[in-house]
TrEMBL record:
Residues 7-166 form the 6-phosphogluconate dehydrogenase NADP-binding domain. This is 3-hydroxyisobutyrate dehydrogenase. It is an enzyme of class 1 (oxidoreductase). Gene3D superfamilies: N-(1-d-carboxylethyl)-l-norvaline Dehydrogenase, domain 2, NAD(P)-binding Rossmann-like Domain. One of its GO terms (biological process) is organic acid catabolic process. InterPro entries: 3-OH-isobutyrate_DH-rel_CS, 6-PGluconate_DH-like_C_sf, 6PGD_dom2, 6PGDH_NADP-bd, HIBADH-like_NADP-bd, HIBADH-related, NAD(P)-bd_dom_sf. Residues 169-289 form the 3-hydroxyisobutyrate dehydrogenase-like NAD-binding domain. Coiled coil: none annotated. It comes from Actinopolymorpha cephalotaxi. The keyword Oxidoreductase applies. Belongs to the HIBADH-related family. Its EC number is 1.1.1.31.
Length: 307
């Protein structure tokens, strides 16, 4: 048991949430979990978590409640729907939303919970499923100083970089900045690997040659090898990436700023979704460029097979 004596709840055990909740358990926290598909709670319960039947029950049993679900309407439902968190939360509790959702909706939710005496942080994360599993996520946090410090022990159990970026809603805006950088980086990786393949280069040696210099990036180092191995397992799916890019484009429209590359990538991903590839990792962006070029950027063995 951790010396930190608050019980922590976790609602949403998907590709990111399961790893995050697992790290809370490994750090010794007393954790109550809920997921709409109850079977996803079973591995965590086996590791010592308690399962709850509804988000409301999580809130009734916990002092701090984390949320990590897919989209803005999902957070709204988890918070304020029938048997939602707001129906069971008590005065003085804290809600931390680690989903990637609308900054405007985030500010609205914080105001509604404040009327109940409940604190709220938006704390979206970056680092993919690998970072969630290893506890090395980058977490960008919006909210009051005191609430951030209260949540810090939990955040540090799940992430290696915790940055308080501003007031409520600022975390979500910062995450949208992150997503612009992620997808435009992957577009660059995609164009580069297609060119390398068309030019007859060994793709593994090419990545090794450039990743340690100015061209290096997280996406190149982590997703480039997956691409050339024909490995499309998601650290983050195309469908979820598209949801985030929609939020980026909405925010850009509201703020009156150009998002030229993001818009292009959104439409490239749309072609892949249309072909049923929405469940693949976001690095499958390269498939849209491969179709345009008539080139597949895969490393092959001596028999001509993908290695």
């Amino acid at each position: 048991m951790s010396e930190h004596n608050e019980r922590v709840g976790f609602v949403g055990l998907g590709i990111m949430g399961a790893g995050m909740a697992g790290n809370l358990l490994r750090k010794g926290f007393d954790v109550v979990v809920y997921n709409r598909t109850a079977a996803r709670t079973e591995p965590l319960v086996a590791d010592g978590a308690e399962a709850a039947g509804t988000p409301r029950e999580v809130a009734q049993r916990c002092d701090v409640v984390f949320i990590c679900v897919s989209d803005t309407p999902d957070v709204e439902h988890v918070l304020f729907g029938e048997d939602g968190i707001a129906a069971g939360i008590r005065d003085g509790a804290l809600v931390v939303d680690s989903s990637t959702v609308s900054p405007a909706s985030t500010r609205e939710w914080a105001g509604r919970l404040a009327e109940q005496g409940v604190g709220f942080l938006d704390a979206p994360v970056s680092g993919g499923s690998e970072g969630a599993a290893k506890g090395t996520l980058s977490i960008m946090v919006g909210g009051d100083d005191a609430d951030v410090e209260r949540a810090r022990p939990y955040l540090e159990a799940m992430g290696s970089t915790i940055t308080h970026v501003g007031v409520v809603g600022a975390g979500q805006t910062c995450k949208l900045v992150n997503q612009i950088l992620v997808v435009t980086s992957m577009l660059g990786v995609s164009e580069a690997l297609v060119l390398a393949k068309a030019g007859g280069l060994d793709l593994e040696k090419t990545i090794t040659a450039v990743e340690g210099g100015a061209a290096g990036s997280w996406m190149l180092a982590n997703r480039g090898p997956q691409v050339i191995r024909d490995d499309w397992r998601p650290g983050f799916t195309i469908d979820l990436q598209q949801k985030d890019l929609r939020l980026v484009l909405e925010a850009a429209d509201e703020l009156g700023v150009p998002a030229l590359a993001t818009s292009t990538i959104f439409h490239l991903y749309r072609t892949l979704q249309r072909d049923g590839l929405g469940g693949e990792g976001n690095h499958a962006l390269i498939k849209a460029l491969e179709r345009l070029a008539g080139v597949q950027a895969r490393q092959v063995d001596g028999d001509g097979r993908a290695s």
